[in-house]
Amino acid sequence: MDHGSRGDREENDIEVEGGGHNGSFESERRKFVERMGSGTSEDHNLREPLLLKCRTNTTSQIAIVGANICPIESLDYEIVENELFKQDWRARRKVEIFQYVVFKWTLALLIGVLTGLAAVFCNFFVENIAGFKLLLINNLMLNDRHFMGFVANTSINLGLAILAAILCAYIAPAAAGSGIPEVKAYLNGIDAHSILAPSTLFVKIFGSIFGVAAGFVVGKEGPMVHTGACIANLLGQGGSKKYHLTWRWLRYFKNDRDRRDLITCGAAAGVAGAFRAPVGGVLFALEEAASWWRSALLWRTFFTTAVVAVVLRGFIEFCRSGRCGLFGQGGLIMFDVNSAKNSYSSADLLAVIILGVIGGIFGSFYNYLVDKVLRTYSIINERGPIFKVLLVAAVSLLTSCCSYGLPWLSHCIPCPSYLEADRCPTVGRSGNYKNFQCPAGHYNDLASLFLNTNDDAIRNLFSSGTSKEFHLSTLLVFFVAIYCLGIITYGIAVPSGLFIPVILAGASYGRLVGNLLGALSDLDTGLFALLGAASFLGGTMRMTVSLCVILLELTNNLLMLPLVMLVLLISKTVADSFNQGVYDQIVKLKGLPYLEAHAEPYMKNLVASDVVSGPLITFSGVEKVGNIMHALRLTRHNGFPVIDEPPLTPAPELCGLVLRSHLLVLLKGKKFTKQKTMTGSDIMRRFKAHDFAKAGSGKGVKLEDLDIKEEEMEMFVDLHPITNTSPYTVVETMSLAKAAVLFRQLALRHLCVVPKTPGRPPIVGILTRHDFMPEHVLGLYPHIVNRHK
């Protein structure tokens, strides 16, 4: 795969063109040394201290994003303090700084408004498309046209599923899946092609509508997180020359740091829009999505989610009168269990503990099976888009057969005597009591769960005061079906969230436990369903605080706080003893080089110099153009150390680090000299800091864009103005564990390793995120884990 423009070959190994690491490596190395400017062989040894060591990093530079394999690269969250940046910062007036702050809050406002509108849009179409489909099936069943009901259900579901699959397979493969692992990886510092592109946003919205309306056991909540992140990324592009959005203050946002903050706000807004849980959205971003946090970001995410809540509330009030079709009657899920009795005894606490243990076991097994299914689907998806569509069609047919066929196994139940005739059976609207094939005055409890939108099915399971509504066999069949369908559906080429399938399955066995306990418990069966959902969520996703608050905001019942906290803690503890959380597991499965907050124990036995890769390529402060061009062609490094040498300095010393993207901009400007002299003042007049700002998606200068003539190859260029003179450095004897924590907490892309003793080359090597990956470390020292044990 060609990584020439987007690959992130940061681990400092030379890949010769056309062959990688092969037998011609030594000859290529010698040619490269000869072309690295004038000087003695001793000078070259000083500038390339790792050539003889030749330790290379072979970790993968590709990953799966959505359902697509593409190259990945790291993001530049570090502030590049070069002379141009310092000049720009000193020149900023107070009014410009004020504009920057105001515009940041304005963007947070826009993210909240647009994400709220996207949530309303998705719910509006899901409720209406699925609602009209279910009304059609209900009318056919009332007329005893059972086979036509099956044909209508299957064909509509299949058509919607194929539409979603075509969008994902052919337009934006990155939109498949929930998107939460990709957003989590981006906020950790990993970028990939189309991960937050406008096409991904388009497919995420419409693919989610078609997928959920098609009856798949998926939710739109996970995709809403990805949608919010895409909206934030689109707003945070820092302007566009193409569309004449080039106001002066927009350029301040052309950096990865500000985009990271905005995308964090977008992820929080997505949760708020999906669950009507603004505080839960903030906590989700803090606990699960973001890798770096600060108090200023807390304020902005809270403001963004508050805006989302206001937008949603306004549209719900507008649609409540029936002006939005079926939306407003069941859309934008809110499960009110406030009417249930909330008192509980010590016996109930024992039942809650049991639920927590069950949720931990089921959740960890669910994650294990999802892992196996994703590995299997990846083999199918690699064969091409048509196979992705066929896989979606097959899962759609299976889901339709289950949702329409399984209710026939259930017996008809007489409507409760205390209910009015228009409430049972439910005809022409959503509700608990679906008639299906039953005679008048009876309902089918399994059809009430299967032939409903997922939101209404959860609402039915959470309903209080209805302990006799569902038979034990019904709850058991529904749990097994949803558990299995949720596993086989996640991983197909449609936008699919895990929250709703997990809540459905958890609520099923929670209500089942509540029915089994019967009179032994003081808690309502609807509250048991809520606790079951909490336990399964904790067992699969391993979040605690954010899930607790989301569930409380969903159910509008603060009195359940102690029990929800208890069941989440128990289920997470039990599940952690088996495997990782589902999102952590998927991040690893996709090959995304995610940096954990903690270092692995075996890293304490190594020091930083043990894992740096070579050979290391450096430049002089004033370098020959041909040497830079050759290095850019020969390697895929994104950072190069700059060494000042005599006569500029008494001895070789580390001047700083220069980025590949900055070198390309500088070379395109052709500010060259025939003599090896410092021309920083001329470059400072020719360029401004915003010329080196990060461009929007895929718009930066590429190596192929340069037109360097043969005579210009022998000229020189001064790198000092664009060199980051204060890169983060660690001494070579620092423990790898300590370096890993430092690298992650400072959100670095490059970490320079310098020698401890004088008289040696001024830099030992550069650490990147790939050098901290277990695949690299354990590949170099395979016995270190056993030795640590």
TrEMBL record:
Residues 722-785 form the CBS domain. Residues 1-25 are annotated as: Disordered. Keywords: CBS domain, Chloride, Chloride channel, Ion channel, Ion transport, Membrane, Repeat, Transmembrane, Transmembrane helix, Transport, Voltage-gated channel. This is Chloride channel protein. It is a multi-pass membrane protein. One of its GO terms (cellular component) is chloride channel complex. It is found in: Membrane. It comes from the Eukaryota. InterPro entries: CBS_dom (IPR000644), CBS_dom_sf (IPR046342), Cl-channel/antiporter (IPR051280), Cl-channel_core (IPR014743), Cl_channel_pln (IPR002251), ClC (IPR001807). PANTHER family: CHLORIDE CHANNEL PROTEIN (PTHR11689:SF144), CHLORIDE CHANNEL PROTEIN CLC FAMILY MEMBER (PTHR11689). The chain crosses the membrane at residues 105-126, 147-172, 192-218, 262-285, 297-316, 349-369, 389-409, 470-492, 558-575. GO terms for molecular function: voltage-gated chloride channel activity. Belongs to the chloride channel (TC 2.A.49) family.
